[in-house]
TrEMBL record:
It comes from the Bacteria. Residues 131-424 form the NADH:quinone oxidoreductase/Mrp antiporter transmembrane domain. It holds the Pfam family Proton_antipo_M. It is a multi-pass membrane protein. The chain crosses the membrane at residues 6-22, 34-54, 79-100, 112-129, 135-154, 166-189, 209-233, 245-269, 281-298, 307-325, 337-357, 369-392, 412-438, 459-481. Its main location: membrane. Keywords: Cell membrane, Membrane, Transmembrane, Transmembrane helix. This is Proton-conducting transporter membrane subunit. InterPro entries: CPA3_Na-H_Antiporter_D, ND/Mrp_TM. Belongs to the CPA3 antiporters (TC 2.A.63) subunit D family.
């Protein structure tokens, strides 16, 4: 094994080792969870080492298997994949820390299976992030769908099983119906599936078939949750909150928008994308999804459901940036992958903490809760600011980059959509912490009369609370130090030396 391939293989194999050790130590919860956290930190250190090598101009690559000529399982480090890998590996140990408090506090069953499947999902994410070709990306994209299914159905109830069926049928169905044929057709006409800056399609390939191919790729990557293939995301909210965090911030939806960006940049090519008439329609569809999902979110009283539709809307931001078919749009989208991940995981952590500590899941029940759970509700406020795109949080920069990209492209309608969407973000997120801290005199008097004010509600268990503090502080840190996400986003367009 060459030194160039060792780090990549190590990053993919480490979570699999974690899954094995988790299964072996399942009877000893403290040891099992220590294994998850320690290996998670080692994975983060590995990806930081890969980042240092990338900064130094070293071409890191790995080759596993040749299937057919031009068809292989191989891996290579480039900026977009490295950004995704760093985001996922940064949030994995924090999510495990949170899960310790949540899963124990909520007395969840099958915790060993939960941690093992979580680790396998992270391994699939690492393989997706470093995939050197469309075939490798497709294989591990499917692995990710399969290994997260037990997490979605974790509760074992009929509702959980139904949510899992919707989850798997949409993700696998779109992959088989759209993604797989698009990949095969690309291989036939191009003779390769290897990612290449500027695209791999032959120059003579154009016309309606090119538009059809683009549509197949876009709708085949249903993890990006573009309407009308978004229903799996709200359906999957039956899962425990750490799984929701995995779906929304660490792995699944980010694998979707990441795959979409990879295909548009390295298979289609931005120059070719600008010439396809369908691109404008997909841009408008993404913009419509941003607004529609925000409007649906406003009507949800269940906190996790509101956050789920918020994610659908925020993913639309990333898709919009991609369909602008400009470098500035892609840079804004890539930066938003990181900023949204940290902000949204904070919100989901807070939602789970509220459920564990107060057994409340409906927003209408959370008025006045800030006095009993001040740390959680302050963290929710910080996470909400990041999703809205307000200082001093990291979401400010990605929203600004996307707005600038719409102006550079002369897409004024998209600029208006982003601004209106941000106002809608304010309308459905900020009232939650504000009413928690300032419930109003009428509410306090009614509480006092009914005696409910005496009910003691404390913060969530310490591990979950520590995770919430870490991610909320990270939202603020990314405002002052956004350098690494932005460096990697801009680095997408610097050709990586081929081995």
């Amino acid at each position: 094994m060459s030194s160039e391939s060792m780090l990549i293989n190590f990053a993919i194999a480490l979570p699999l080792l974690a899954a094995l050790l988790i299964s072996v130590t399942g009877r000893f919860p403290n040891l099992r969870e220590a294994v998850s956290i320690v290996i998670g930190l080692v994975l983060l250190a590995t990806n930081i080492a890969i980042y240092k090598q990338w900064q130094g101009g070293v071409a890191l690559h790995g080759h596993w298997l040749d299937i057919l000529p031009g068809l292989s399982l191989s891996f290579r480090v480039e900026a977009l994949g490295l950004l995704f890998a760093l985001v996922a590996s940064s949030l994995w140990p924090v999510t495990v820390l949170y899960a310790i408090g949540y899963m124990r506090g909520h007395d969840e069953k099958n915790q060993t299976r939960f941690y093992a499947c979580f680790a396998i999902a992270i391994s699939a994410v690492m393989a997706i992030a470093y995939a050197d070709n469309l075939f490798a990306l497709f294989v591990f994209y499917e692995v990710l769908s399969l290994c997260t299914y037990p997490l979605v159905t974790h509760a074992g109830t009929e509702k959980a099983k139904q949510g899992g069926r919707v989850y798997l049928s949409i993700l696998m169905g779109t992959s088989i119906a759209f993604f797989l044929p698009a990949m095969i057709f690309t291989w036939v006409i191009s003779g390769t599936l290897e990612f290449r800056l500027g695209g791999i399609l032959p120059d003579e390939f154009s016309g309606p078939l090119l538009s059809i191919l683009l549509a197949f790729f876009v709708f085949g990557v249903a993890k990006a949750a573009m309407m009308p293939f978004h229903r799996w995301l709200p359906a999957a909210m039956v899962a425990p909150t750490p799984v929701s965090a995995l779906l929304h911030a660490v792995a699944v939806v980010k694998a979707g928008v990441f795959s979409l960006l990879k295909i548009l940049i390295f298979v289609i090519g931005l120059d070719r994308l600008q010439e396809i008439p369908l691109t404008d329609y997909l841009l408008y569809l993404a913009g419509a999804g941003v607004l529609l999902a925000s409007l649906v979110a406003m009507r949800q009283d269940n906190l996790k459901a509101r956050l789920a539709y918020s994610t659908v809307s925020q993913l639309g931001y990333i898709s919009m940036g991609a369909f602008l078919a400009t470098q500035s749009g892609v840079i804004g989208s890539a930066t938003h992958i990181a900023m949204h991940a940290v902000g949204k995981i904070t919100l989901f952590f807070c939602a789970g903490a509220i459920l564990v500590a107060s057994h409340k899941s409906e927003i209408s029940q959370m008025r006045g809760l800030g006095r009993q759970m001040p740390i959680t509700m302050v963290a929710f406020f910080i996470g909400a600011l990041s999703i809205i795109g307000l200082p001093p949080t990291g979401g400010t920069w990605s929203k600004w980059l996307l707005l600038s990209a719409t102006m550079d492209a002369g897409q004024w309608a998209m600029m208006v959509i982003l601004l209106v969407s941000s106002l809608l973000n304010i309308a459905y997120l900020l009232p939650i912490p504000l009413r928690a801290f300032f419930p109003g005199e009428k509410f306090l008097k009614e509480q006092s009369k009914s005696g409910t004010a005496a009910v003691a509600i404390k913060e969530a268990p310490l591990p979950a609370l520590l995770a919430i503090i870490i991610t909320s502080l990270a939202c603020i840190a990314l405002f002052f130090w956004p350098d690494i996400p932005y460096e990697l986003a801009t680095g997408i367009f610097n050709e990586v030396p081929m081995p």
